[in-house]
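re: the backbone from monday

yeah here it is again, tokenized this time
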């Protein structure tokens, strides 16, 4: 309210978090204000059909977990009955779980994944999930769980991997980008390389340490304006989403208002960001990108593209 009514801002870009977005979205929509590229995993900013004033860069968390599950099934050749889901027992975690179930249905799997929920509380407690999985492994020696698709925040993810590794379990762990790839890597490397090596995190951007034209442009801008900052998927996502917004401003012209800008954004088709995927919107689709990239931690704490 202060920003819009007091400071007279034109619109909002890059709002972070599902809870905060859920709180402000009704206010924004009632006033028909642009709400652009929120960093939100939940479907409330991805309605079908889309809200006219809401534009999103990244796929939903369910899209990322579906891609991770497809990777396990089709690339790593893990059987459906050997996949578990470790997830936060709230709306965010349920959205991610739905993506896994969607991939299972698409693969015509006759089983559901082993579910390992954890409660959101003041302290990190993943003990119930660890006990459930440990017992399952002991009860199923001929078909143990081999891969865990995770839908957590960073600290529970790190604690779960730590406890399962200490229990002697060597599993494939894969999480969507909302976990915070860099923070998770740093946390696991504090424990030791064996905890980090092989952990997979999907991303809404390609490797920010790569050498594609789009990445090089981003790194040049980062070095110019924020020379002390290292390339990072989150800032790269913000950079790319803003490039699309700038294209909308160009098309709207100098005498723009919100309605003209929304029309201009919906006219963007197949915008080449030099990242290997075209971006754009339409009246019926306000999701800029439908592609998910994969990265894997190595023993040095660096992410490698997969």
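seq for it, each position gets an aa:
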């Amino acid at each position: 309210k202060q920003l819009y009514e007091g400071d007279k801002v034109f619109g909002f870009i890059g709002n972070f978090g599902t809870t905060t977005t859920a709180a402000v979205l009704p206010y924004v929509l009632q006033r028909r204000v642009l709400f652009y590229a929120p960093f939100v995993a939940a479907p409330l900013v991805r309605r079908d059909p889309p809200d006219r004033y809401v534009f999103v860069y990244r796929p939903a968390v369910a899209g990322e977990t579906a891609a991770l599950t497809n990777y396990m099934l089709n690339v790593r050749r893990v059987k459906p009955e050997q996949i578990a889901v470790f997830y936060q027992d709230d709306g965010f975690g349920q959205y991610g779980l739905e993506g896994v179930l969607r991939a299972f249905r698409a693969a015509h799997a006759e089983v559901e994944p082993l579910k390992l929920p954890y409660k959101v509380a003041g302290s990190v407690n993943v003990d119930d999930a660890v006990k459930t999985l440990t017992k399952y492994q002991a009860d199923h020696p001929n078909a143990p769980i081999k891969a865990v698709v995770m839908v957590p925040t960073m600290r529970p993810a790190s604690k779960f991997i730590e406890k399962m590794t200490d229990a002697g379990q060597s599993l494939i762990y894969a999480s969507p980008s909302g976990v915070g790839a860099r923070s998770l890597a740093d946390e696991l490397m504090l424990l030791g390389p064996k905890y980090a090596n092989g952990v997979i995190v999907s991303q809404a951007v390609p490797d920010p340490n790569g050498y594609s034209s789009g990445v090089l442009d981003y790194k040049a801008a980062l070095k110019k304006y924020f020379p002390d900052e290292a390339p990072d998927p989150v800032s790269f996502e913000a950079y790319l989403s803003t490039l699309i917004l700038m294209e909308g401003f160009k098309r709207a012209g100098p005498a723009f208002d919100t309605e003209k800008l929304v029309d201009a954004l919906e006219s963007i088709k197949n915008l080449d960001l030099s990242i290997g995927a075209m971006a754009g919107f339409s009246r019926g689709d306000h999701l800029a990108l439908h592609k998910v990239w994969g990265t894997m931690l190595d023993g040095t704490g660096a992410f490698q593209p997969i």
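The chain has a mean pLDDT of 94. The first strand starts at residue 11 and ends at 13.
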